[in-house]
Write a structure and sequence with these properties.
The structure holds two protein chains of two kinds. Chain A is α+β, with helices and mostly antiparallel strands. In chain A, β1 and β2 form a beta hairpin. Chain A is globular. The two termini of chain A are 28 Å apart. Chain B is an all-alpha fold. Chain B has one domain. Chain B contains ten helices and no strands. The longest helix of chain B is centred in the N-terminal third of the chain and has 42 residues. Chain B is globular, with a radius of gyration of 20 Å. Classes of the chains: A alpha+beta, B mainly alpha. Chains A and B meet through α2 and α3 of A and α1, α2, α3, α4 and α9 of B.
């Protein structure tokens, strides 16, 4: 396979912060003080200083163990599970990084319908159970580089997007693939309220060129860290495109449509100058408001972690993907 | 019974005579403790997946909150004839500066991690950081001239210099607005509050512009 492996890097249990302790840190801060501390607005829908006195919601999103082929050992230090599952950009559940884990616990993913349609001979729909049984599941340890210049290393579980597309027998007009996230304002507070959802247009849509979609690195993920995906990470199924900025990796997908023309994509609609359609990780092309030459790798170590590292072209996956962009001006097609 | 009444009067008198001190103690506690807790939790990796971002956001918004509260005191003191409130403005301003300074130092130490070329490059090239830096320089010059002895020596020019706090508050509002990706409602509310507080002083600000 394509993942270069050198030596074991599994972190041990005692290095991982206890989950309950971990999740309480925001309420600790909020209860502390209000002059310097409190923002004039509560930071999320259900966070308020007086949370201290109210009983906590006890609904917890259920995950279960998956059967999959384990990845060979990786040389990279993994980002601890507690961080992977509590630091999420999923504006459907709130714009702050900690909002999704707080607001997505009641998210219902079963039943689910993922429709594969468009320029294909055999359109079909996958139900919830089909997501886990239609294709052999394998683990892939990928670097995730956010456009905000932080990164993680995550053990995903899933199958190549190419499998899902091949099964639908795309025709010759299938030049691009358009993805769509679930639209359900009753379940997703960010879609209901502009304040919670950050004012982006819903449903969230993303797209890839067909060769990018068929690249063996492009993964449809249904799990991480050995289990089904947590709601805040895009359950029950999401895209993972490791050589592109994280916003390309659309979550909680209900539609995959093969199309002839380049489809619109959410962040590009909102700010075309800042977020391109391609969004390949590229240290040579800065975001207008910050440098993309380096990134902070989130693992462990707190404030003193010396975690700023150089960003690599195509997030270090150039060998596998650079060929697809030969002859393209990547400054223009950022 | 009479002893109790005497005690009550005494308590009230003590309270009135010490209210500035009490208020200052409250300001100290509510400004310093969150800052202390913030860095304690961040250093021990108990502040989420990205403690750097938490620290930078918390100190930034904290500095703005404290500055706005200090700007709110004068109108309140005038309207409700509570002159003693004015005696706490300097403390609030100094805490606002402290938060802002920690905001910048945290960016240098933990975000760009002492890459000075990147640090200076970002301040010069990114407009939202440039205006933030300009605001911090204003707050710095207000902080160092806040001592009574310096204030007396500066005479009339002291007030002229300290009027720059209005410019700083607008720059900070702009810095906040330009820093967000799409969630403009919260910075929008801050802008409205800032403009409201400046509008209460429109006569003074107009005079300031005429005398320049």
């Amino acid at each position: 396979m394509l993942i270069k492996t050198i030596k074991s890097s599994d972190i041990s249990e005692q290095q991982v912060t206890d989950e309950n302790l971990y999740h309480s840190r925001r309420s600790v801060l909020k209860q502390l003080g209000f002059l310097g501390a409190g923002s004039l607005l509560a930071q999320s829908a259900n966070a308020a200083p007086l949370d201290f006195f109210s009983s906590k919601k006890d609904v917890v999103f259920q995950q279960r163990a998956l059967n999959f082929q384990k990845a060979s050992e990786s040389s990279e230090i993994l980002t601890p599970e507690a961080k992977v599952t509590s630091h999420n950009n999923f504006y459907e559940f709130g714009t702050a990084k900690g909002d999704p884990v707080e607001n997505a616990q009641e998210f219902k993913v079963n039943p689910w319908q993922l429709k594969i349609s468009g320029e294909v001979d055999k359109p079909y729909t996958l139900g919830y159970d089909d997501l886990f049984s239609s294709f052999p599941l394998e683990e892939r340890i990928y670097r995730l580089r956010c456009v905000e210049a932080w990164s993680m290393v995550i053990p995903w579980i899933g199958f190549p997007l190419a499998e899902i597309i091949k099964k639908a027998a795309p025709n010759s007009r299938a030049k691009y693939v358009a993805f769509e996230t679930l639209y359900d304002p009753e379940q997703m507070p960010g879609q209901k309220s502009r304040r919670i959802g950050g004012g982006i247009k819903y449903p969230y849509v993303e797209g890839l060129r067909i060769d990018e979609a068929m690249n063996p690195l492009t993964l449809m993920s249904v799990g991480l860290y050995g289990k089904t995906l947590p709601a805040q990470n895009g359950a029950p199924i999401r895209l993972v495109v490791p050589w592109k900025y994280g916003f390309k990796s659309i979550k909680s997908i209900v539609g995959i449509k093969l199309v002839e023309k380049q489809p619109p994509t959410t962040w590009n609609i909102l700010a075309a100058r800042e977020y391109g359609f391609y969004a390949n990780v590229n240290p040579a092309v800065d975001h207008p408001r910050w440098s993309q030459a380096s990134e902070r790798r989130l693992t462990t170590g707190g404030l003193l972690a010396r975690n700023r590292i150089a960003t690599l072209p195509f997030n270090g996956y150039g060998e596998e993907v650079a060929e697809m962009y030969k002859g393209m001006d990547l400054r223009k097609y950022y | 019974m009479s002893a109790t009444v005497v005690n009550n009067i005494t308590f009230k008198q003590v309270f009135l005579s010490k209210r500035v001190l009490l208020l200052k103690i409250v300001i100290h506690l509510m400004s310093f403790l969150p800052l202390f807790a913030l860095y304690f939790l961040a250093f021990s990796d108990q502040l989420g997946a990205d403690p750097v971002k938490e620290v930078i956001h918390f100190t930034g918004i904290g500095a703005f909150n404290l500055l706005l509260i200090s700007l709110l005191l004068t109108p309140i003191a005038k309207k409700y004839r509570q002159g003693y409130l004015l005696q706490t403005r300097r403390l609030l301003g100094l805490y606002s500066f402290t938060y802002a300074l920690m905001h910048l130092l945290s960016f240098l130490a933990f975000e760009v991690q002492f890459d000075f070329a990147l640090f200076l490059g970002e301040i010069i090239e990114r407009p939202y950081i440039t205006v933030g830096m300009a605001a911090l320089i204003i707050l710095l010059s207000l902080a160092v001239t806040s001592l009574n002895t310096i204030k007396r020596k500066m005479g009339k020019s002291w007030q002229k210099l300290h009027n720059w706090v209005y410019v700083a508050s607008l720059l900070i509002a702009l810095h906040f607005l330009w820093s967000v990706k799409s969630e403009i409602i919260e910075p929008g509310i801050y802008i409205i509050i800032t403009v409201f507080l400046l509008n209460l002083r429109r006569d003074k600000i107009k005079r300031w512009f005429k005398n320049k």
